[in-house]
Amino acid sequence: MKKKTTNCLQYAIWIDLQKAVIACKDEEGKVSTESVLSEIDTRVRFEGEGSNKNRLFGATLNQEKHAQNKLQQQRKAFLKSVVGKMSKVESVIILGPADTKYELHKEMEKKKSFSSVPVQVKSADKMKIHEIKAVLNPAPPPRSIARMPRTK
C-alpha cells in the first residue's frame, strides 16, 4: 500500500480509545481531515461465561492479566498507526478526553523526526470535525472600535 503524501505542516488530533480524527493544514491554508478507527476490544464477553478464572492442574489462572496485556498491545498499535499518518510536521495540537492523548504524546517523542516539533496537549470533550478544524484556523480576535466622543 502506498503511503499518502501530503504537504501538511500543522496538525490537530482529537483522540480517544475508539477513534482519532486528524486535521492537517497545508502550506496554502487548506485544512483536511482523516478519521482512524481503532480495533481495540474494550469489553470482550463470551456467551455462557460465568467466571473470569480458569482452572488448570488445581491452580486458578486469572484471565484479567492476559486481557490487560492484549489491550495494551492493541492500544500501542493504534497509537503507532496515528503517528504513521503524519509527515512533515511543524506543530501538533493533541486534544482528547482521556489519557490516550498523553500516550500519543509519548509515542511521538519516541520518533526522531518529531523530536524538535512543538506539541501542545489539551483536554477536550467530544468535538465535531468543524471544531477540530477551528483549532487550526483560530478566529481573529475581535477588533475594538474606538468610539469618538459625542460633540454637541
From TrEMBL:
It comes from the Bacteria. SUPFAM superfamilies: Translational machinery components. This is Protein required for attachment to host cells. It comes from Flavihumibacter fluminis.
